[in-house]
Design goal:
By secondary structure, this protein is of the alpha/beta class. The chain has helices at residues 27-31, 33-41, 68-83, 102-115, 138-154, 163-166, 195-203, 206-209, 215-227; strands at residues 17-22, 45-52, 87-93, 119-123, 129-130, 134-135, 176-180, 187-190, 235-242. The longest helix has 17 residues, at 138-154.
Length: 244
C-alpha cells in the first residue's frame, strides 16, 4: 500500500443526494464511476444528468449516425444500473455544439431543483488542455461552466428563471460541489473496493470502447496515480467546494 500524508475523503453522512452532470454518456464512467459506485453502496441516491446523448461519438457516415443515439442512451442506462445510479436525466442537446448559454443554464437549474441534490459533481471548466497530449473537449468546458452557474446563483435564487416557479420548482441550495479534472484537487475518494465496478460500467459503453480490453489498464493507471496521493490502491481526485 502506498504511503502518503493525506487521507482519503469520505462524504459526510448527511449528504444523501448526489447529482453528476456531464456532457457525454461515458464521461462519468471515465472519471467518477468508482466514487459513484461507492456512494451507491453507502446508500446514497445518485443521479446522472447527461447534456448530450453522444451523437458525435463516431466518424462513420455522419456525426449523428443512424441508431447511435438510442444505442448510447441504452448504454448509459446499463452503466447506471451497474453503478447503482437511481436516475438518468437526458437533456438531448447536440453533441459537439455545446455553449454555456442561458438556455443550458436554465435546463441545468431545472434539473437541480427537480433532483434537489446535496452534492453536485461536474468537471472543471478552466483547463484548455491536460499535459502534452490532450485538448479538453469544448463540450466538457461548456457543461462545467453552465453547471457551476446553475448551482450558484441560479438554483438557489427565486428571481432567476422565475418561469421555473410556475413549474412548481422551488429554489434549492446545493451544499457541496465536487469538481473532477481539477488542476488543483484537494479531495481524493478511495475506490479500491469499487474499481472493478467502474471498469464494468465503462465497458457497458461498447459503442465507444469496443470490447473494452484496454479499459482496465487505462483506468488502473489513473487510479493508481491518484491513489498514491492518499495511501490508497486506487482513488479519484476532486476539487471540493463547501458552499456557504
Amino acid at each position: 500500500m502506498p504511503r502518503a500524508d493525506r487521507k482519503p475523503h469520505t462524504l459526510a453522512a448527511s449528504l444523501r443526494r448526489i447529482l453528476c452532470v456531464s456532457a457525454h454518456p461515458d464521461d462519468n464512467e471515465f472519471t467518477v464511476a468508482g466514487s459513484v459506485a461507492r456512494w451507491a453502496r453507502e446508500g446514497r441516491d445518485v443521479a446522472f444528468c447527461l447534456v448530450t446523448s453522444g451523437g458525435a461519438g463516431t466518424n462513420e457516415h455522419t456525426p449523428r449516425s443512424e441508431g447511435l443515439i438510442p444505442r448510447r442512451e441504452q448504454e448509459s442506462r446499463e452503466a447506471a444500473r451497474i453503478l447503482g445510479v437511481k436516475d438518468v436525466v437526458l437533456l438531448g442537446y447536440t453533441d459537439g455544439a455545446l455553449e454555456p448559454t442561458l438556455a443550458l443554464r436554465r435546463d441545468l437549474t431545472r434539473v437541480i431543483r427537480q433532483q434537489r441534490p446535496d452534492v453536485v459533481v461536474c468537471s472543471d471548466p478552466t483547463p484548455r488542455w491536460y499535459g502534452d497530449n490532450y485538448l479538453n473537449h469544448p463540450d466538457h468546458r461548456a457543461v462545467a461552466s453552465a453547471a457551476l452557474d446553475a448551482v450558484f446563483p441560479s438554483a438557489e435564487t427565486r428571481a432567476i428563471f422565475p418561469e421555473l416557479l410556475g413549474e412548481g420548482l422551488e429554489p434549492h441550495k446545493v451544499k457541496e460541489v465536487l469538481i473532477v479534472g481539477a488542476l488543483e484537487p484537494n479531495a481524493w475518494i478511495d475506490i479500491g473496493d469499487t474499481f472493478d465496478v467502474k471498469c464494468a460500467a465503462l465497458r457497458a459503453h461498447a459503442s465507444q470502447v469496443g470490447g473494452g480490453e484496454w479499459v482496465e489498464g487505462l483506468l488502473r493507471g489513473w487510479g493508481e496515480r491518484e491513489g498514491k496521493r492518499v495511501g490508497a490502491r486506487y482513488a479519484e481526485a476532486f476539487r471540493r467546494l463547501v458552499l456557504s
